[in-house]
Design brief:
Number of helices: 18
Structural class: alpha/beta
Strand content: 15-25%
Protein name: Putative pyrimidine-nucleoside phosphorylase
Distance between the termini: 28 Å
Number of domains: 3
CATH superfamily of the largest domain: Nucleoside phosphorylase/phosphoribosyltransferase catalytic domain
Subunit structure: Homodimer.
Pfam families: Glycos_trans_3N, Glycos_transf_3, PYNP_C
CATH topology of the largest domain: Pyrimidine Nucleoside Phosphorylase, Chain A, domain 2
Shape: globular
GO molecular function, one term: 1,4-alpha-oligoglucan phosphorylase activity
CATH architecture of the largest domain: 3-Layer(aba) Sandwich
Largest sheet: 7 strands, mixed
Helix content: 40-55%
Keywords: Glycosyltransferase, Transferase
């Protein structure tokens, strides 16, 4: 297949893929070019993506797809830089996952250079860019040269890629979200790694979440994806680590966009949910270790806690937001960024202990409120969201407020019902115990899987 193919050739290529033809960089690039030049329709590219997701890809095909996503930004090995290692971090997403907003300034406060490239939400998994757009004036889209300039000036930047930096991923990312292709491990891996390679990252820590509120339902699928990400990153010269995180229960107390920004700020001021603290610390440790392999882990943990206690991590967040044009008034003034038009309290239907909180139902409720997108042309409400007032293991009396729903004042009955149903109330001994964050071992990261990879 070459650059002169037509739509009929692309459709024939899809048919051949279904019958086992090997995906090549050239073939994938040709299909993506057809779409980007307007000759292939959304539904036709969606058919191609759905074929890849349903069929699965072998590891060499995932490498080929990643190269096609990169286009002219492709790189075969790590570039040599002078000075400190530049570290990126990527989460596969989960309900209430605001770890980037915490760990990036926290790690930067320890002197690690961080260039964090983020994306938008996929399905019920909120996106860091969607959250940060709650900060008025904040510049988030950068070219490669702009990223380099910002990083040289401040050693810290969070943003997204301009549309032409990773053209293949730009073409497919939104369609994956609205076409049932979100949970394909090969598509996830090619999308994530292509962006890291394009901006010439040197080291990446992957946060791979599992559970009903994450992209992958079970821990072993997440472990395999983590290994795939580390292996694929290594193929392009990146130094990678990964952490597995349990996403079956919402992380922290806030789910939404502006409301999660406010929770991250509170965390950096020293008040935070225990699970959020454990996950942020686990990720931050790996980010420091990938940059400074010889620093003892216990010493890193002590320095991370000191950065919060001293206020240096919060100061780093303020500095980053101001450097990127963001209005820090709501943050410094204490009012916060989340200002919903209306709030609806959700009462406990009966007395008992909170035994479970379904990430899936909370995430669906957030979508109903407008905190994410169901259709590609949906407009996100930055102030929509959910604040969890009670947590796993808490005892509640009938009528106690267990959550608040933030909305625009219109009918929120469906979302309120989902939030209410997300809480399971019963006996204390039946309370769910979420898994602790777990670094992926070297054996997992360097597995040599030769068969078809789905999840």
């Amino acid at each position: 297949m070459n650059e002169t193919i037509g739509v009929d050739d692309a459709l024939e290529h899809i048919e051949r893929l279904r019958h086992g033809e090997t995906l090549t960089t050239e073939a994938a690039s040709a299909v993506l070019d057809l779409y980007r030049t307007g000759r292939l329709a959304d539904y036709q590219l969606t058919a191609w993506l759905a074929t890849l997701a349903a069929r699965g890809l072998r590891f060499p095909e995932i490498v080929a797809l990643t190269r096609a996503y990169l286009g002219p930004a492709r790189r075969e090995g790590a570039a040599t830089r002078e000075g400190r290692t530049v570290v990126d971090k990527h989460s596969t997403g989960g309900v209430g996952d605001k770890t980037t907003l915490v760990v990036v300034p926290l790690v930067a406060a320890l002197g690690v250079r961080v260039c964090k490239l983020s994306g938008r939400g996929l399905g019920i998994a909120g996106g860091t860019i969607d959250k940060l757009e709650s900060v008025p004036g904040l510049k988030l889209e950068f070219t490669a040269s702009e990223l380099a300039t910002r990083l040289a000036a401040d050693d810290l930047v969070i943003g997204s890629l301009s549309g032409d930096l990773v053209p293949g991923d730009t073409a497919t990312y939104g369609l994956r979200s609205v076409s049932g292709c979100v949970r394909s491990a090969p598509l996830i891996a090619a999308s994530i790694v292509s962006k890291k390679v394009a901006v010439d990252a040197e080291a990446v820590v992957f946060d791979v979440r599992y559970g009903a509120g994450a992209l992958l339902a079970d821990r072993e699928s997440a472990r395999r994806l983590a290994g795939l990400l580390v292996r694929l990153g290594g193929e392009f010269g990146l130094r990678c680590r990964a952490v597995l995180s349990d996403g079956s229960v919402p992380l922290g107390t806030a789910v939404g966009n502006a409301v999660e920004i406010d929770e991250a700020i509170s965390f950096l001021r020293g008040t935070g949910d225990r699970r959020l603290r454990a996950e942020c610390e686990a990720l931050a440790v790996q980010m420091v270790r990938v940059a400074r392999p010889n620093e003892p882990e216990q010493r890193i943990r002590e320095r991370l806690r000191a950065a919060i206690d001293s206020g240096s991590a919060l100061s780093m967040l303020v500095r980053m937001l101001e450097a990127q044009g963001g209005d820090t008034g709501p943050m410094l003034g204490g009012d916060g960024y989340c200002r919903p038009r209306a709030r609806t309290a959700v009462p406990a239907p009966r007395a008992g202990w909170i035994t479970d909180i379904s990430s899936l139902d909370i995430g669906r409720a957030a979508l109903r409120l407008g905190a994410g997108k169901v259709r590609a042309d949906d407009v996100i409400d930055p102030h929509a969201g959910i604040l969890l007032s009670r947590h796993l293991g808490d005892f509640v009396a009938e009528g106690d407020v267990i959550a608040e729903v933030f909305h625009d004042g219109r009918d929120s009955g469906d979302a309120v019902a989902l939030v209410s149903g997300a809480f399971s109330i019963g006996r204390h001994e039946d309370c769910r115990v979420p898994g602790e964050p777990e670094p992926v071992s070297e054996d997992d990261a360097h597995s040599h899987e030769t068969g078809m990879i789905h999840v």
